[in-house]
Design goal:
The protein is α/β, with parallel strands linked by helices. Helices cover 42% and strands 18% of the residues. Strand 6, helix 6 (154-162) and strand 7 (165-169) form a beta-alpha-beta unit. The chain binds nickel (II) ion.
Length: 249
């Protein structure tokens, strides 16, 4: 079985979630982790995990939402983080690409890391244009997790692995100019790699231009196998094993 560790199959983007889940099953996906990004999507994640057997959830407020969240939204995450099929605090992190208040972003990130630590949950982390700052915060956080859509250097990747983080590899690995990610895939052991689609975004080749969906994790895995010269079934077992170990399943 395959796992999509990071996607957003929410009604905001899809009007056919039944079909999306079925197509994922048909493609050999046994677990889909839907990540919340704000209060509204966190509420929806709870509904999705109770409706679909292979859907699991992560609850979090992502950095772009830093201007809109309330303390009540954080309390909601805390109240539901131990619910059945909720695996992690995510999507959380830092994004310096946008002109959001960086101090507030760090505050929000740290508050959610505290929730993860308190309830012994892993985190799913978004980091854009600030990989060093993200590392510096995570290093002392006492939590483990997944670096979603990892886009840093090989050296940085090794540091994240050392502090208990797995690297989420997605559609970017199939793009023509993906030298950096390909370098990471080549140089990092499969024991530290997990698959993700980030649906509805980042559709892999050869499907670019269409809406992404969890069934496409098989394309990502095939790409990793091509780069590393691995057998598909074995690589599937290893990457899925990494996920199950992290989430204690
Ligand atoms: Ni995401």
């Amino acid at each position: 079985m395959l796992v999509d560790t990071h996607c957003h199959i929410l009604t905001e983007y899809y009007d056919n979630i039944d079909e999306i889940v079925q197509r994922a099953k048909d493609a050999g996906v046994g677990m889909i982790i839907v990540n919340g990004v704000n209060h509204q999507s966190n509420v929806e994640v709870l509904k999705l995990v109770s409706k679909y057997d292979i859907v699991y959830g992560a609850l979090g407020i992502q950095p772009e939402e830093v201007g809109d969240y309330t303390e009540e939204n954080l309390r909601f995450i805390e109240e539901h983080i131990c619910d059945d099929k909720i695996l992690a605090v995510g999507e959380i992190g830092l994004d310096y690409h946008y002109e959001c208040d960086r101090k507030l972003q760090k505050e929000l990130f740290k508050k959610q890391l505290e929730i993860a630590k308190k309830y012994h949950k892993p985190v799913i982390v978004h980091s854009r244009d600030c990989i060093q700052e993200t590392y510096d915060i995570l290093k002392n956080s006492g939590v483990q997790g997944i670096m979603h859509c990892y886009s840093g250097s090989v050296e940085m990747a090794k540091l994240f692995c050392k502090i208990g983080f797995l690297l989420g590899i997605g559609g970017i690995s199939t793009f023509k100019n993906a030298f950096k990610v390909v370098d990471v895939i080549k140089n990092i052991s499969l024991e530290y790699i997990v698959l993700e689609t980030d649906s509805p975004y980042l559709t892999p080749e050869p499907y670019r231009g269409r809406q992404n969906e969890p069934a496409n994790v098989r394309v990502i895995l095939q790409k990793i196998c091509d780069i590393k010269g691995l057998d598909y079934k074995k690589a599937s077992d290893v990457t899925t094993g990494n996920v199950l170990r992290l989430f204690d399943k």
